[in-house]
Design goal:
single chain; mainly beta; 5-stranded mixed barrel; 2 helices
Amino acid sequence: MNKVILMGRLTRDPEVRYTQTNNTLVASFSLAVNRRFANQNGERQADFINIVAWSKTGEFCSKYFKKGQQVGIIGRIQTRNWDDDQGVKHYVTEVVAEEAYFADSKRDAGNAMAGATFEDTFGATAPGENTTSDVDDFDVSSDDDLPF
């Protein structure tokens, strides 16, 4: 199985090209993906991963993704190689995006709801913030009444 899930920030705006044979859109960009742990100096390091998105996914990325934005990408790893004009062999490993998502919070994206509370947004209190005593009165004594 070849499946990759990444979340990171775009290092530049997507670059758009079209194939010569059938004029298919191809968007290319790079994601800075933080490593899970800090190095010995306590600094966080990042890997810079090349992403290629084709057709509709590429169109979406080129239209809505901008440098610095946090995004999620689901795709597959692809390797390829070629010889240049001087006969030097080049190798590339990249992720072919099959799905692309926004991953910035609404606050980071500058949304008008940035100051809204959980209750303002969803019409309820956040989980674990019981503001009414009737929640404590709810008792499940057997699994027979549960719908699952």
